[in-house]
Amino acid sequence: MRQNELLGELVGGADPAAPVPTCPGWNLSQLVRHVGRGDRWAAQIISDRVDHYLDPRTVRDGKPPAEPEALVPWLNDSPRTLLEAVAAAGEDTPVWTFIGPRPAAWWVRRRLHESTVHRADAALALGLDYDLEPALAADGLSEWLDLVAARVGGDGPPPLQDGMTLHLHATDEGLGSAGEWLLHGGTDGVRWESGHAKGDCAVRGPAVELLLVVLRRRRLEEAGGVQLFGDAGVLSTWLEHTGF
Length: 244
Known about the structure:
Elements: H1 2-11, H2 28-47, H3 68-89, E1 94-95, E2 102-103, H4 106-125, H5 134-151, E3 165-170, E4 180-186, E5 189-194, E6 201-205, H6 207-214, E7 227-230, H7 232-240
Parallel strand pairs: 3-6
Antiparallel strand pairs: 1-2, 3-4, 4-5, 6-7
Helix pairs in contact: 1-2, 1-3, 1-4, 2-3, 2-4, 4-5, 5-6
């Protein structure tokens, strides 16, 4: 809920038509709608026991209010609908997700990190600073890697060639193994593990900056305190083939 509140603080007095460069084709109004409706979309999937893709246009209360003063309260209330749906269903109840059945509580983490990243989109669009607690940024990166590993496949080129490795290392104090990731390319897709190891390419820096780089919100050369070692082509290929 706090991430939605922080997003609301950013966009509350901003021009809703302002473009969001990190989400090409979107403006701030569309970004807010995406976040708030997405929370309610996940809530309805859980509460209605939906077992297939749900058209977001059909989501209850999924359309933001027309009154400007009601927009931020609507955004702030959106995650509450999700938390209530999870509580009613039970955290461990299997539900539909776009990567296969998962416990209902899976959606809480997914929507949390959706909000943190789109708050970054809004901040970058408005030319404002963006910050995130290192532990939350690190968990967001782990959650994203889980999604990539689950969805890689099909006819497209892999983000990591067979046998190639990419090491990500958050330099914030106190993260321990939760702040290091080793990504492996294989014939059956991508897998990752926590911990320190040497990769064909290594990227080091603050967790929040690593998150923004890996999710293609900030270019490597623009990220504060981030260094790359080894084969830069490994990271370039990864970034090129992990957008969805």
